[in-house]
Specification:
The chain has 273 residues and is of the alpha+beta class. The protein is built from five helices and 14 strands. The strands form two sheets. Strands 1, 2, 3, 4, 5, 6 and 7 form a seven-stranded antiparallel β-sheet that branches. Strands 8, 9, 10, 11, 12, 13 and 14 form a seven-stranded antiparallel β-sheet that branches.
Length: 273
Amino acid sequence: MKSSVVVFIAFLGLGLFSCKDDTEDALISLEEYLQNKSIENYELTDSGLIYVVKESGEGPSLHVGDSLSISYKGYTTDDVVFSTANSTQPFEVVLGIKQVIPGWDEGLALFNEGGEGTLFIPSHLAYGEEDLIFDISIEKAIPGLFGYTFEDYVLDNEWTPHEETDSGIWYVITRAGSDKNPQSGQTVTVDYTGYFLNNIIFDTSVESSVKFSFSLGTTEIISGFSEAVSLLNEGDIGDFLIPGNLAYGENGIPGVIAPNQDLRFTIKLISIQ
């Protein structure tokens, strides 16, 4: 089984809400495994996740939105290995946005960068059928959502001088075009690239043969993107830091964008009609 099977979107298991009996059954199976292997130095969370910390890690603690590189071995309670990723080709995941099974999202957050250990995941936190075990190592963590502000981004990326809008968007016009500014209701065509604040791309139109067009001011796109385009003249290129409440808000995009995640967009206003 390929390593990507771990990520196959966690909604396969997320809708499975466990009752007390389910948790007890899962723990019995895992407890028997622990007893058979004489493993005693484990911890138990309220959800039923069991974990062992081999090394907590000397790097920063992990938070929702962090991009992680992980080596791991996944196996069943009869020690049959079904998935692996090594440090040469680690598994990439953004923490806490439902890209992986719930037991991973909860378990990974218990370590720091550089941490190693084992997650004993009951079925209701896995794929709903059987208990699973993962030996994990957090090879690298790139800060994402929490604890990283627009001020941090500007400082780290030498992003000065910049402008700020009343709504909370920070921006820099990197290339000036004409003096033609779009008005609400006009159709605008743009090229864009969307980034997390760690400069990892999550979406782009640049390589598409069909450019992105929309009616300025429409509610069909995020309000921060529409406002950012309104700040451009035709032919301009700008970089925009958009706060989470003007992006995908409290819901985010499961598997892609965390709730209330701040984002960066580079936008070129190609034409106005």
